[in-house]
Amino acid sequence: MSRRTSKPTVGALPDTTVESPSVPVALTWLVWSLFAASVAALLARVRFGGAWEVPGVVAIDGLTVLLWVVVTFFSAIIHSYSRRYMAGSAHETSFFTTVFGFTVAVMGLVAADHVGLFWLLWLAMGLLMATLIGTVDGWPQARAAASVARRSFFASSALLGVALTALWWATGATTVSGIAASADSLGGPVWVVAAVALVLAAMIQSALVPFHSWLLSSMTAPTPASALMHAGFVNAGGILLIRFAPVVTVDTTLMLGIVAVGAASALLGKLLKAVQSDVKSELGCSTVGQMGFMIMQAGLGFFGAAITHLILHGFYKAYHFLSAGGQVEHTSPTERDSHETSLAGAVVVLATGLAGGAVFALLTGKGTTLSSGLLLVLFVVFTTLHAARSAVAHTALSPTARYGAVPLVFIPAITVYALVYVAISGVLSGLPIVAAPTELTALHGVVAAVFLAVYVAIETGVHERSQRLYVALLNASQPASSTVLTATEEYNEY
Fold first, then answer.
1. 206 HSE (CA, 13 A, CB side)
2. Contacts of 146 (CB under 8 A, 6+ apart)
3. CB–CB of 101/126 below 8 Å?
4. For residues 198 and 338, what is the distance between their CA atoms, to the nearest angstrom?
5. Higher pLDDT residue, 6 or 160?
């Protein structure tokens, strides 16, 4: 047996009762103040409307103020949470400074109208997030993870630069609003280059398959930074598509392609999640799938639904990351209840899913015509079915209580979702395009049929019976090898 010994590199936990440095305290108060100001701006926007802009530089619309509220709220929660989490860390002040800088960059991005300013803030946002991933600069794996993320974000920024340059060349406009106003004249090879580059930039930023490796390699980030990343940063892909919606909606073939890549990522994210053995990696794969759903909604032409999805997903994922430590204690393989779904349970689940889709269609008006709105409602039905089936299978109640509780919980939840969607679409009403449903084609039917077949296979556990598929999924979800911690001696926070 080896007699190897190692010198401890991590001492006792710091005393969190000592006075905090002034910078974290000041930035926490400042970001809460920004949240209050953003709420006031949103209310003023809804009440008075009008044009808020510095012509050619920034333009503040409904999307801007809505995302200001969301981003500053998440940032404020993370600042407050980090006061305890980062207490005593040698990186405390730099961490807070970077998180605040990231918040300001995102606030600037959603207000930027000049394409040069938009690109610079997009680049800054990525570099700041890479810095947060590598916060512990004395940890080799953290430096490697930051490098992996930085390369991805440089690629995304380069693609966005290509797209903006092509759009400027084609329209002569130097602003996002000017490009949107000239979108009707777009077409030909220059538009193809711009549109494909925009979609690829969005896919990388939102960690869609096959660009998900940077996200799964980012687990070296402090938990608050992971919450900010999964609740805010990955949403940038959806924001990019809605800002340039007039560009990507020029051709229905491109929109169908966006639906296809979103659907593929949604399904693969769910499969990758099934083979994870730790909480943060499971949450990371969940984000890959959820961003797929968000991009898919944009591809269907429902950009308001995509924004609604990314906001609600942000709240969900921020909560789960900040409570990830507690999840380890709450469940274990021997304690988790799992019940076989009986015929009665299957009927309840199916009825709840169909009722959820009907409620969504009734409240939003989607799916009432032969358009891509039908697919949007179909995906709402799938989501409700999955959540209801999970509740029936894993809730520790008697069968009668479980079957009765499922519709009582999920129908109101879908109602709230639909009403939030309607409200957000109202706030976004001043944008060039909020909803652009397309006519259904045979290819839409093929995508829907494949999605349905794979979804049913996953729900029935077909993928669990193939060792080859299990290994393939496990390999596809591996982070970059240089980011994996193999010995605790390699980690030194202090």
1. 33
2. 130, 131, 133, 134, 220
3. no
4. 43
5. 160
